[in-house]
């Protein structure tokens, strides 16, 4: 039996019980896949992160991510949560830690300020698939409970990824966004057909000049009907907006704030930064606050 130090962290917020909750086990060395899956199921957050010691000189540690029913390669809000938990557990100063994930070694920056922390996650390589054909797009629109006229015509429906892919679906109205009642069974079935589990529905319909987009993210194919605030949706959204020239930009950087979780009372905000070269996205980072909901120990 070993005591596993376990946190629940709310990411992309400084208010407890808002943003996106993630479990974090900060001392996971020696745990089996079965034990990690059991803890993830018990905590029942959309993801739980497990931190391991490094397995070589090329990284500062290893991080793995589990939903309540499967392992996933990378997760934005659980990365913010994991680095925040490590920072407060070890009372870290500002630093950059290189963690080995299923999509490679990524640098995560911990920023200490006024005895608290923010975290910057560098995401994986940006990839954008071709837009879906009309048949698949219509299946998706129907499963989401949308009408074709509600789709933002300047936004192609296509998969964007920085390591854990999401379908980007732009719509015209925030009221429509908040009124969505998707057919989760249909979305999960469609996920197998398109080989993508996440559907990120977003809109530019914002009444706040500091917020560019509002979004909702559905992933019933991996047991997450709705994810509150999704780093691996808003990050790829930044690349999608730049590559499709949907938003104006000048120079080598584009930054925006995305808000998510309004409908389900878990509101959170994250900052997305896209580094641009030759008018295409080269590097995507997300930055967020976090707050600890609780710290406990699990004997296993």
TrEMBL record:
Superkingdom of source: Bacteria
Segments crossing the lipid bilayer: none
Gene Ontology MF term list: isomerase activity
InterPro entries: Phenazine_PhzF-like
UniProt entry keywords in alphabetical sequence: Isomerase
Pfam families on file: PhzC-PhzF
Keyword Isomerase: yes
Similarity comment: Belongs to the PhzF family.
Name this polypeptide is given: PhzF family isomerase
Organism: Flavobacterium lipolyticum
Species classification: Bacteria, Pseudomonadati, Bacteroidota, Flavobacteriia, Flavobacteriales
């Amino acid at each position: 039996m070993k005591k596993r130090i376990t946190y629940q962290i709310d990411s992309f917020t400084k208010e407890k019980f808002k943003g996106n909750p993630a479990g974090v086990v900060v001392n996971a060395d020696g745990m089996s896949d079965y034990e990690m899956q059991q803890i993830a199921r018990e905590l029942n957050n959309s993801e739980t992160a497990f931190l391991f010691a490094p397995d070589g000189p090329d990284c500062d540690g290893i991080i793995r991510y589990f939903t309540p029913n499967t392992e996933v390669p990378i997760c934005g809000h659980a990365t913010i949560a994991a680095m925040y938990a490590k920072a407060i557990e070890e009372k870290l100063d500002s630093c950059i830690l290189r963690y080995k994930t299923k999509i490679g070694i990524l640098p995560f920056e911990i920023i200490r300020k006024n005895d608290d922390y923010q975290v910057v996650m560098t995401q994986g390589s940006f990839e954008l698939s071709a837009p879906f054909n009309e048949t698949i797009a219509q299946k998706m629109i129907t499963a989401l409970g949308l009408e074709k006229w509600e789709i933002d015509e300047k936004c192609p429906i296509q998969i964007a990824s920085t390591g854990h892919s999401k379908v980007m679906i732009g719509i015209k109205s925030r009221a429509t966004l908040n009124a969505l009642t998707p057919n989760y069974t249909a979305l999960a079935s469609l996920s197998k057909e398109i080989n993508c589990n996440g559907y990120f529905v977003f809109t530019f319909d914002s009444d706040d000049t500091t917020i560019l987009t509002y979004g909702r993210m559905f992933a019933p194919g991996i047991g997450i009907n709705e994810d509150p605030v999704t780093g691996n949706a808003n990050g790829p959204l930044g690349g999608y907006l730049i590559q499709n020239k949907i938003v104006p930009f000048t120079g080598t950087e584009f930054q925006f704030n995305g808000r998510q979780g309004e409908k389900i009372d878990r509101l959170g905000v994250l900052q997305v930064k896209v580094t641009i070269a030759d008018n295409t996205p080269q590097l995507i980072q997300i930055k967020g606050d976090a707050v600890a909901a609780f710290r406990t120990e699990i004997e296993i």
